[in-house]
Amino acid sequence: MNRFFKPLALAAAAVAMLAGASAAMAAGTPSGTPISNTATVNFAVGGVTQTPVVATSPSFLVDTKVSMTVVPAGGAGSVVNVISGAVKQVIPYQVTNTGNLVNDFLLATANLASGTTFGSPTSYTDNFEASSCGVFVDSNGNNSYDAADTAVYIDELAPDASRRVFVVCDIPASRVNADFSAVNLTATAASGGAANSQGAALAATTGAKALNTVAVVLADVAGSDDLANDGKVSARSGFLVQTAALTVTKAVGAYCDPVTFNSNPKLVPGAYARYTITLANSATASTSATLGEVADTLVTQLGFDANLINASASSCATPTSAAGKGVRVSCTGGTRACATTPIYLDTSTTVTGQNISVNLGTVLPVEAGYTAGQLKPGESVEVIFNAIVQ
Questions:
Q1: Model pTM score
Q2: What is the dihedral of CA 146, 149, 153, 154, to 10 degrees?
Q3: How would DSSP label each residue in 155-219?
Q4: What count of Cα atoms within 13 Å lies in the side-chain half-sphere of residue 85?
Q5: Which helix (H) or strand (E) holds 363?
Q6: Which pLDDT tens digit goes with each residue over 224-239?
Q7: Which helix (DSSP H) or strand (DSSP E) does residue 255 occupy?
Q8: CA 278, 284, 285 angle in degrees (round to 5)?
């Protein structure tokens, strides 16, 4: 009987030997990890188990995968509300190293072109440029921009780790409600390995893989203002001006004269003119206004009516409220008390010579739902006084 070669088992297994390396992270096996592979064949001859045959391939080094994410802290498409003229306004971003090697990340910000449309679900269109912009790294992990945050690049960011970064800009004065400035943040991967030393931007390795060297592969996705596989990622955000839309108007009309009193009065000497200063916050405004002083100076041809007379068909002499209460403040809209009961101010605290001064920050007090001097969208305040033609 001839003996035939009959293998009992023939199995080839690729076994990864991650010598000296930690367990793989979400970012993948760390760059530079040596990888070896062994195949083992078990067999028998004539029913007799033989010594397994082992074959080992040459080892190789894991290459560097460069990738990162850049996201506004408020989420993709988010913007930051600011007021006109504010300085050091902050857009926080989160930069995450999704590659497999400790890297530095270079940071840059730029204003986007006028007319750029951005935002989700609400869309905004760029119509001004934020100024004095810079990028700074959170130094103490408190996720808030402060004076200690002076680093301008991310140093030694490990795989799977994140760092908070702040785009800081000034907002020009005289911007109006709903004005928008679009900006971006770009993070560029740079070589790490030396703490407190800014590495150079990484470039992709060209040519065939050399097993005993570590190549660099740029695996980043396209950002808002860069291309895929360019070693950088960018993301947009912006500054949305949210402010009160305050208008101030001043009206005057003949109120009472010494001949016809309140019947079609004329502004002859001795007649009373009524001035109405109206401060209104538009219903389309995004925020409240905090009112301060209203000042008015009468010309020498006018004298102040210290009693705020109430004109009638036979008199220009009766005080509207009380003698010496020469200024009336009333409100329209909202729930302030002055919307139903006007405030009459003592002339001694509001008039000095020809100068009339009303501090609405004091006159409009803290009330339920209101801070001092607060004028909400859709509300208005009237300041009324009389002047006597000399």
A1: 0.73
A2: -90
A3: EEEPTT-EEEEEEEEE--TT--TT-EEEEEEEEEEEE-SSTTSPPPBP-PPPSSPPTTS--EEE-
A4: 4
A5: helix 360-363
A6: 999 999 999 999 999 9
A7: strand 246-256
A8: 70
